[in-house]
DNA sequence: CTGTTAGCGCGTTCAC
DNA sequence: GTGAACGCGCTAACAG
């Protein structure tokens, strides 16, 4: 059976409060070193494990952090950005990284456990039942904002993942998708390309992150004084544009979109990077095998999640809320080459 | 502030115990329907949320399930199969799916939350502090077994993920990797190939799942009375074997290995499926873009996780432990063709 | 330096 | 059909 604090106290010949003082981990209590050592020894011998529920009830805190993964694994289509499967693909690509980042940071900071709430239309109140000291909310951009709004006045600190805009009083971390889009585009410009198309904006155009990637593209194009090509989201149209000499390089919304570009071009006998230079976004697992090595924008999902945990823990220690935008960086492989190399063919 | 049960009782004009009876969800208590309705209404109006810690302390149960993800997100190399990065890749490929499966099943079954314990050498005892009613353990094959062994006599039900062999008294779910390997191999045999190589077994040969995939290959080859080719894990060797007519088809250990095969062959001017038929394993995100559509064995990771949750919940309801091996199935795309089509070139 | 005492908020008896 | 009283295991005061 489970051994409790009174049994440890009895076996060690002290009172239960002394045991509590020793095992609470808090320093500053006045306890003889010898007594403390004996208590610890007895506790180990007896296999004593403090009961979390009782401790939580007494202290009002749990040491645990809550994670709301609204979209993760939702097999029901309508819980994902209005049924857009691209949203699902995006989430699935990163859920592993998110969990990895959360897990790493939690271990590093000594957070005993993460409480993951399965998504689905449960009342926002259910997150306030004292199971956690703070909340990380990583839900999709649309439903997410509703949840954040509902928890605006929640009596615990909240950090929003995947979003820049939060109600006041909350912290937020996001990847700077716009900077990433600009980064990719500038890279192609520096290679000498000026007829650069943005591939994407199709059914997934409602996804804010993708729109920001496209903004980044436009921003870089405008800054370079180069005409912006209208977004393409169709292999056939892309092939026509390439053949007509209107496009020599493509910035794809995602690595999967980049893979689709490669495939479409190859069916037309066109190849990357010989005929078209290509840059993706995300650096998904396997990106090194797309087009013989896809040059792409690394998307720091795990870092974002880890940063979120750090922010939350700092808030629990009394620091004020803050915002953070993580800069992506370019991973140069072999799918983009200089315009002159392309012309030389 | 947080509203407690006494305040609801006061506002509804009843005693706290009546409120408890109404809101506990348990039927069978004798409470006037009208009273019950009034209590429920008042509770909603006041935004009452039962305190989890107090309820857990009183009832001894939490309704929560624990998940031990020993390997997930471990950035320290030595926590992953002795530093083998292939292990890391494997885990990362599926962590999102695992979380998705867990999440889906938890929502479906009304489990309020999953408690995820960050990996790292914490005492097995720390999982027994009453935070959860049962445990899902999804750790890598090597370290995992040690943890399972240590928790052999734990006073709560345990379901092991990713493993077939568990201490008695525990439940287990795994994907049938061997059946998957046999499935892929039989498919190639049925296409008329008999010179089939297993690509893999390199640095990751310590991974039990991969060994089982290879066993499946050998099993199918032997059953067909066809000589087993020795495993290849090197692009150059593979190219030589193909050129020498020793290999017309390849079963790759993973989809990433399949992608590497495609890339190696393509550098030698060989293509899939025209020169070599190829079947992968996993059906990772993006598999449809490998070799113009990779034929592969679908790996039901999410289903496995969901099944684990179901098994655990059934155990909590008193059912005895059980074992389960999920059959993978083949996803036919375009990377494998009949031997005659290959010869016709 | 150590022990005694009084709840934390809830669910469950048992009287009424 | 309803309410008062008790205790789950632990920790924070305070007393010694």
Largest sheet of chain A: 6 strands, parallel
CATH level 3 topology of the largest domain in chain A: Rossmann fold
> Which structural class fits the helix and strand makeup of chain A?
alpha/beta
Major protein interface:
A-B, 67 and 67 residues
Principal-axes shape call of chain A: elongated
Q: What would CATH call the class of the largest domain in chain A?
A: Alpha Beta
Query: How many domains of chain A?
Result: 3
Q: What is the tally of helical segments of chain A?
A: 12
Question: Would you identify the regions of chain A where 5 or more consecutive residues have pLDDT less than 50?
Answer: 72-88
- Alpha-carbon distance between the termini of chain A? 78 Å
At CATH's second level, what is the architecture of the largest domain in chain A?
Answer: 3-Layer(aba) Sandwich
Helix and strand sequence of chain A: HHHHEHEEHEEHEHHEHEEHEEH
Total strand segments of chain A: 11
Per CATH, the superfamily of the largest domain in chain A is Response regulator
Radius of gyration of chain A, whole Å? 26 Å
Query: In which order are the strands of the major sheet of chain A placed?
Result: 2-1-3-4-5-10
Q: What fraction, in percent, of the residue positions of chain A are helical?
A: 40-55%
Tell me the strand percentage band of chain A.
5-15%
- The residue-averaged pLDDT of chain A reads 88
> What is the oligomeric state here?
homodimer
Characterise this structure.
Two copies of one chain form a homodimer. Chain A contains twelve helices and eleven strands. With 345 residues, chain A is α/β, with parallel strands linked by helices. Chain A folds into three domains: 46 residues; 140 residues, Rossmann fold, CATH 3.40.50; 136 residues, Response regulator (Rossmann fold). In chain A, the strands form two sheets. In chain A, strands 2-1-3-4-5-10 form a six-stranded parallel beta sheet, covered by helices on one side. In chain A, α10 links the parallel β7 and β8. In chain A, α5 packs across α11 and α9 packs across α10. The longest helix of chain A is centred in the N-terminal third of the chain and has 25 residues. The radius of gyration of chain A is 26 Å and the shape is elongated. Chain A starts with a helix and ends with a helix. Chains A and B meet through α4, β1, α5, β2 and α10 of A and α4, β1, α5, β2 and α10 of B. β2 of chain A pairs antiparallel with β2 of chain B. Chain A binds a DNA duplex (16 and 16 nucleotides) through α2 and α4.
């Amino acid at each position: 059976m489970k051994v409790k604090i009174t049994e440890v106290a009895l076996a060690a010949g002290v009172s239960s409060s002394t045991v509590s003082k020793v095992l609470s981990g808090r320093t500053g209590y006045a306890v003889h070193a010898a007594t403390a050592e004996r208590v610890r020894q007895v506790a180990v011998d007896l296999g004593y494990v403090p009961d979390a529920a009782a401790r939580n009830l007494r202290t009002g805190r749990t040491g645990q952090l809550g994670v709301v993964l609204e979209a993760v694994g939702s097999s029901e289509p309508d819980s994902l950005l209005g049924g857009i499967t691209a949203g699902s693909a995006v989430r699935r690509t990163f859920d592993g990284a998110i969990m990895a980042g959360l897990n790493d940071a939690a271990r590093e900071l000594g957070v005993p456990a993460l409480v993951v709430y399965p998504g689905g239309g449960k009342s926002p109140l259910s997150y306030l039942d004292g199971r956690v000291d703070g909340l990380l909310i990583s839900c999709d951009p649309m439903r997410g904002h509703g949840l954040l709004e509902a928890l605006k006045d929640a009596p615990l600190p909240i950090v929003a993942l995947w979003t820049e805009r939060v109600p006041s009083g909350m912290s937020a971390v996001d990847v700077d998708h716009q900077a990433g889009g600009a980064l990719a585009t500038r890279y192609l410009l520096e290679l000498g390309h000026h007829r650069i198309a943005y591939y994407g904006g199709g059914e997934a155009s409602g996804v804010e992150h993708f729109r920001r990637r496209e903004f980044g593209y436009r921003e870089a194009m405008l800054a370079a004084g180069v005409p912006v090509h209208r977004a393409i989201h169709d292999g056939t149209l892309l092939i026509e544009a390439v053949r007509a000499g209107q496009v020599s390089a493509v910035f794809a919304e995602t690595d999967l979109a980049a893979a689709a570009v490669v495939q479409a071009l190859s069916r037309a006998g066109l190849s990357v990077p010989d005929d078209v230079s290509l840059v993706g976004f995300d650096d998904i697992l396997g990106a090194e095998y797309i087009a013989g090595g896809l040059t792409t924008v690394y998307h720091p999902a795990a870092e974002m999640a880890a940063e979120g945990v750090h922010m939350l823990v700092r808030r629990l220690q009394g620091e004020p809320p803050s915002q953070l935008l993580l800069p992506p960086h370019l991973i140069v492989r072999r799918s983009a080459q200089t315009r002159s190399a392309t012309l030389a063919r």
